[in-house]
Amino acid sequence: MQPFDTGAAHERILRHVQQLIQLTEDEKAYFLEQLKPRVLRRKQFLVQMGEVCRFETFVVKGCLRAFAVDPKGQEHVVLFALEDWWISDFQSLSTEQPATLYVEALEETHVLQIEKKELEQLYLAVPAFERFFRLKLQNAFISFQNRIFSTISQTAEERYLAFRQRYPLIEQRVPQYLIASYLGFTPEFLSKIRRELATRR
Amino acid sequence: MQPFDTGAAHERILRHVQQLIQLTEDEKAYFLEQLKPRVLRRKQFLVQMGEVCRFETFVVKGCLRAFAVDPKGQEHVVLFALEDWWISDFQSLSTEQPATLYVEALEETHVLQIEKKELEQLYLAVPAFERFFRLKLQNAFISFQNRIFSTISQTAEERYLAFRQRYPLIEQRVPQYLIASYLGFTPEFLSKIRRELATRR
Prior knowledge:
Two copies of one chain form a homodimer.
Chain A: H1 6-17, H2 25-33, E1 36-40, E2 45-47, E3 55-61, E4 64-69, E5 75-81, E6 86-87, H3 90-95, E7 102-105, E8 109-115, H4 116-125, H5 128-153, H6 156-166, H7 168-173, H8 176-183, H9 187-200
Antiparallel strand pairs in A: 1-8, 2-7, 3-6, 3-8, 4-5, 4-7
Helix pairs in contact in A: 8-9
InterPro entries (chains A, B): cNMP-bd_dom (IPR000595), cNMP-bd_dom_sf (IPR018490), RmlC-like_jellyroll (IPR014710)
Organism (chains A, B): Larkinella bovis
Protein name (chains A, B): Crp/Fnr family transcriptional regulator
């Protein structure tokens, strides 16, 4: 595993945060002090169903998926996260109830984590972070709305093409059977769509 | 139609807001000044697909549904809103792109609306509203996560029962065929579930 590069990670998260809010030098220093680095091996879990999720997590490097498991043991991918994404079982983090999702690293992944109580303190110490996370949640909400709309109103092929266009990096880094699961397709059905698209080119 | 009772509406929204944040008398007055009352008849649209949604809307009295229309003209209920809910086409409001949803009053409905530019001003003038809407979005995000999880992991009957338990008021006020649409059932399938539940009591 690669060692965690704290300097580069801090630079990355500050650049990310400052796309939405302005911070003073003191606020930056305070924020960075709250963050804990963590390295996950491939297939290691960040969150496990049934355990309370206590961290908000920023992806510095790597790739993860969140998934739920149905009563038959079948996995369903709910979302992916790459560099510069935040991921957690948001419900569990907020309510302190056991997680209903798993979050698993798909490759070696470096993250910065902030514990719930430190995050609450951060909101009080640096209120600009209220704005930052409001805007992040706003975007997440919009992509949920998009996803519902796309499920309702687009054909399977259109949904696959929209996914590829919206998340080109995920398409390159994630195995096809997981993309199929995210889209609610069987792997065979996704292969069929891909073959049809290829012959039409 | 009943006249809009501004005093009662202001009292209601202040009570609602102050469950999550504290406001000074000046902040309350400033906030209330930004709000515009509106009365919708039954079947009147608050948001129409294709038009840019310019308002965030708080329901004082009444009931609405947000729905999308698929290419075959079939309607799909995305969410309901009752008293004390906020509703808009959030994507359209944020991005200023045309709405992908309709929002329609299911009964005579009284709302308070705040225009996007006044809302942006409000965030600057009263930063506690950043927190307020962050917490509101957080709850919305959690119910989306719940809904995805429930679709994946529960039987149709369990989903219907969970809906009834979670939203008892909606169950009482909204026609069954719209609840069927929200749950992704045909009306016939929902009737069948209800009959089965009734015979088991």
